[in-house]
Amino acid sequence: MKVTDHFKNANGKTLFTFEILPPLKGENMKTLFSHIDPLMEFKPPFIDVTYHREEYVYKQRENGLLEKITTRKRPGTVGICAAIQNNYKVDTVPHLICGGFNKEETENALIDLHFLGIDNVLVLRGDCVKSEQRFVPEPGGHHYASELIEQVVEMNNGCYLDDEQVSNSCTDFCIGVAGYPEKHFEAPNLKSDLRWLKKKVELGAEYIVTQMFFDNQKYFDFVNACRAEGIDVPIIPGLKPMTTKTQLTLLPSLFHIEIPCDLADAIEACPDNKAAAQVGVEWAIQQSKELMEFGVPCLHYYSMGKSGSVRKVAEALF
Ligand SMILES: Cc1cc2nc3c(=O)[nH]c(=O)nc-3n(C[C@H](O)[C@H](O)[C@H](O)COP(=O)(O)OP(=O)(O)OC[C@H]3O[C@@H](n4cnc5c(N)ncnc54)[C@H](O)[C@@H]3O)c2cc1C
């Protein structure tokens, strides 16, 4: 079922959903299910599964020279979505990125998802390869999420890359996209970022999931700014309970977000990560309560591979 239909069927009740990462290469589905199991009693209607592009690593050869190797540390998004749907009978939302894909490969991935009965995709550009300064599209690939949306919409209309071929079996993907209450880090200003966000919606995106934020006012301001621009689709807040002291500097550097002073001071004062995680849970519960009162259709939690804190938050709310 489509994410947007889940929102409609909820009749104004706030839903609980979460995002997981594919396990590191070499780990198995049992480990992944052991992270998902504790969250299933809160009845998520869908689970997001991230996509991780290739990375370059350098290995020293016997002759002392370095060899550049391409590796994908967290493969398996499509298979994981199918396994989750099969095991838990819930919908999944695979993330689909431009980086590392040409249009042909994207089309093949979408055909696989369609055959597997997956009805949703979160369409993203993806970040640049870690060793590169800026995003470089694959030859024959897409520069921006908006171009990838156009390809999905074409397939929803039964048009594949081969002009001649018009299928009478259209795909019917519900398309979600990313939004940034604190602005995407490359955008010159929020206004410009919102203009491109609006374009994604005009092209066919039916809902927006936000980057994590720790100050609800940033989300409220973002929603107001979106509405003023004429962006009228649901805007799902993405939340992350902070779990370690190092996340105080790690999360801002990775995701280009601010940690409010009160939260930063409380985490800094913690003697260890156990205490920090407790502060993180309490903060996320307060954020969630206020967002529920605001009437958000769904609270979407970034588990980042660990479900313990998300479960504690869900226990207090759902
Ligand atoms: C909810 C969520 C889930 C995510 N999941 C993943 C994941 O699974 N895998 C992963 O690799 N990354 C993921 N990311 C990170 C995301 O890929 C990066 O933030 C990336 O840098 C931007 O992706 P985007 O889809 O927002 O890009 P876009 O919408 O393409 O925007 C990228 C930048 O270009 C600008 N822009 C957009 N269109 C145009 C245009 N036509 N011309 C000029 N400028 C333009 C925008 O303002 C923005 O600054 C996720 C992010 C979020 C918020």
UniProtKB/TrEMBL annotation:
Similarity comment: family membership: Belongs to the methylenetetrahydrofolate reductase family.
Pfam families to which the protein is assigned, alphabetical: MTHFR
Reaction(s) the record says it catalyses: (6S)-5-methyl-5,6,7,8-tetrahydrofolate + NAD(+) = (6R)-5,10-methylene-5,6,7,8-tetrahydrofolate + NADH + H(+)
UniProt keyword terms in alphabetical order: Amino-acid biosynthesis, FAD, Flavoprotein, Methionine biosynthesis, NAD, Oxidoreductase
Gene3D superfamilies: 3.20.20.220
Record's protein name: Methylenetetrahydrofolate reductase
NCBIfam families registered for this protein in UniProt: fadh2
Pathway: One-carbon metabolism; tetrahydrofolate interconversion; Amino-acid biosynthesis; L-methionine biosynthesis via de novo pathway
InterPro entries in UniProt: FAD-linked_oxidoreductase-like (IPR029041), Mehydrof_redctse-like (IPR003171), MTHF_reductase_bac (IPR004620)
SUPFAM superfamilies in alphabetical order: FAD-linked oxidoreductase
Entry EC no(s): 1.5.1.54
Cofactor needs: FAD
Keyword Amino-acid biosynthesis: yes
GO molecular function: methylenetetrahydrofolate reductase [NAD(P)H] activity
